Amino acid sequence: MYRCVFLKRCHVVEPLKFENGKPCIPVLPAGERSLPSFLTTPQLGNIVSSKNDTRLRIFSGTANPSLSQEIACYMGLELGKINIKRFADGEIYVQLQESVRGCDVYLVQPTCPPANENLMELLIMIDACRRASAKNITAVIPYFGYARADRKTQGRESIAAKLVANLITEAGANRVLACDLHSGQSMGYFDIPVDHVYGQPVVLDYLASKRICSDDLVVVSPDVGGVARARAFAKKLSDAPLAIVDKRRHGHNVAEVRLQRMLLIAGTISKGAALLHQEGAREVYACTTHAVFSPPAIERLSSGLFQEVIITNTIPVLEKNYFPQLTILSVANLLGETIWRVHDDCSRV
């Protein structure tokens, strides 16, 4: 998991409640369910009128079907019919079960673990749409695997992010829609347009509902590389103070905290939280977009260091990985709204 931000506060407004150890999934009031505050714009009325457009099709891969269904529901559409199966030898078979000739097709498939299998499935889905004469093919990738391999840090290393971008482009995609890439430079690896959206508004909307006193709030970046994002986050939280954790990385997935201030195995974020408690923080909240949860992340996150761990559903979380402090926010409205704007050739000014 990456794009992590710590929140430190010294006052509890309302106690948190959890049931049966399952994550809390916030639901907006009935009147706001389709239009959360961060999506409310004067242009939405025009977009709703186009929801009967039969030239827009959404298909889901097998990586995160629940998110795909949420996106389709927000847009007032049904998921396209597609047959995806695996042969005994592991090969993937894809067949569209409805016509997409002349259509704008959106394929929702994060390349989360198992990354190679989900990536290959996405490529075959794109190829199937291209051979079925789709007009435009957009790969909607809520979580873009291999994004961390975006540069060479040592000699004789591969830049896998560029390789994957080439594969998606050569397979036939005309556009990519991604959420919270590991770094902005990854967009430059594609030779096709990339729409990069951020999960930050979803998290901010949720935090606003918690009515946290700004006087008791400090936003903490888990590393130097996340300072810009943490600063923007703090500015939108009533210009809260900013702190930084300086870490020294000795190898892949191994980190050491040195000063006061992804989530794969939760090492960096857990050590940072422990340090914050040592410095007097009463509550620490972890906010991140992508919950990869590689072992021993669950053990570390549920150890009592965090009051709440706030993630999004760009990656599906298995029920066995639920723990009381976990809160899952949906990015379905964010992605659905972006798809409408891309389809209608409009943008928010």
UniProtKB/TrEMBL annotation:
Keywords (A to Z) from UniProt: ATP-binding, Kinase, Magnesium, Metal-binding, Nucleotide biosynthesis, Nucleotide-binding, Transferase
Residue ranges of domain Ribose-phosphate pyrophosphokinase N-terminal in the record: 56-172
Gene Ontology MF: a single term: ATP binding
Family listed: Belongs to the ribose-phosphate pyrophosphokinase family.
Reaction equations catalysed: D-ribose 5-phosphate + ATP = 5-phospho-alpha-D-ribose 1-diphosphate + AMP + H(+)
Transferase listed as a keyword: yes
SUPFAM superfamilies linked to this entry: PRTase-like (SSF53271)
Signal peptide: none
PANTHER family: RIBOSE-PHOSPHATE DIPHOSPHOKINASE FAMILY MEMBER (PTHR10210), RIBOSE-PHOSPHATE PYROPHOSPHOKINASE 5, CHLOROPLASTIC (PTHR10210:SF120)
GO-annotated biological processes: 5-phosphoribose 1-diphosphate biosynthetic process; purine nucleotide biosynthetic process; ribonucleoside monophosphate biosynthetic process
GO cellular component: cytoplasm; ribose phosphate diphosphokinase complex
Protein name (record): ribose-phosphate diphosphokinase
E.C. number(s) listed in UniProt: 2.7.6.1
Origin superkingdom: Eukaryota
